[in-house]
Amino acid sequence: MDLLKTLVDKGLRREPPTREEALAVLATSDDELLDVVAAAGRVRRHWFGRRVKLNYLVNLKSGLCPEDCSYCSQRLGAESGILKYTWLKPGEAREAAAAGVAGGAKRVCLVASGRGPTDRDVDRVSETVRAIKEGNEDVEVCACLGLLSDGQAERLRAAGADAYNHNLNTSEATYGDITTTHTYADRVDTVRRAHAAGLSACSGLIAGLGESDEDLVDVVFALRALDPDSVPVNFLIPMEGTPLAGEWHLTPQRCLRVLAMTRFVCPDAEVRIAGGREVHLRTLQPLALHLANSLFLGDYLTSEGQAGKADLEMIADAGFEVEDAGRTTLPEHRAGGTAGAARTDLVAVRRRGAGTDLAPNA
User: Fold this and answer.
1) Best label site of 75, 164, 282, 285, fewest CB within 10 Å?
2) Which helix (H) or strand (E) holds 54?
3) CB contact at 8 A, 233 and 262
4) 8 membership: H or E segment, kind and range
């Protein structure tokens, strides 16, 4: 396909596709899918080789959120039966993080539900960052605490945090359809605050919210404009008890096209396969490694992922290698089922790891 040759050439030059070209990737047929994966795989390997960066989530505070994000099982009024607990102590968080590091994770992502942190919360998370960094200097720590206010990003950076995550999730045009308690502009502001403080910005999207192809292209181009180092691509986990529990429209093929489009638009960014890969990619997960160079190991915030051992075997079997902690992820110039069929059997509420007495899945 002339389209794919054009996209590869542009990706190797760090030049974005046109909006029409990005839409054309999402519109390719299943007969063309392997050609799309192969083309995007050339761009991925050019910038990242065959390395796969492993990340590990620690949910510092689960549930109890006043925001109304329709996709989230921690939202106000959700009836998903998830674990609910207040802040983990720094020692508990360090112990939870150690399981991920032992499993090969290079980055630990500290996440807390809520609109945004208070100054006391920032103090608490700063102490946790320092606790994790003790004896693990090579491990990256990313904080994800919601909307930031003046000076908070700088304080996290001073405590040793390496990155800050705040996803745009969907297009600006449709953002009000999924959340009413804050705005798309609020999210953009927080990503910019993280950037300005010297933190590595991490910002991505959620596919499967009922959005159009145009919405997906819009949010990925908006992410490119913000220039985050990491772009997590989540696939909606339709948790029971949330407004989007019935949104089972993704197929493995659709997920691969979304990842390929993201790679073409953000060729030299760390594209991460995030929540929902087990639910929607299923047996095609290994193909996604040809598009993304990063993934989460083990469980997510409120749902369970596949076993860490299975992830490591998948990476090796697909011919990729886990990225060492001492290796710089980013390129040198940056571093400074059936559609609509519900697969509720694949969604398991997290009952192990942080906030429980059971061993984590890593």
Assistant:
1) 282
2) strand 51-61
3) yes
4) helix 2-12
> Which three-class secondary structure state does DSSP give residue 169?
strand
Quick: pLDDT tens for 89-122: 999 999 999 999 999 999 999 999 999 999 999 9
Q: Give the residue from 27, 93, 17 showing the smallest Cα distance to 253.
A: 27
Average pLDDT over residues 215-230: 98
Token pair for residue 109? 């992502």
d(C-alpha 344, C-alpha 103), whole Å = 28
* Sign of the CA dihedral with 9 first, then 10, 11, and 12 last: positive
Q: What is the DSSP letter of 87?
A: P
* Cα 81 from Cα 71, distance rounded (Å): 15
Structure tokens of 288?
A: 């996604």
Which of 101-135 are b and which e, b meaning 16 or more Cβ less than 10 Å from the residue's Cβ? bebbbbbbbbbbbbebbeeebbebbbebbebbbee
Give dist(CA 84, CA 134) in Å, integer. Answer: 28
The catalytic residue positions are: 65, 69, 72, 109, 142, 202, 272
pTM (predicted TM-score):
0.92
Question: Is 273:292 a contact under the CB 8 Å cutoff?
Answer: yes
Q: CA of 207: how far to CAs of 24, 232, 356, in Å? A: 17, 11, 30
Q: Are 273 and 245 in contact (CB under 8 A)?
A: no
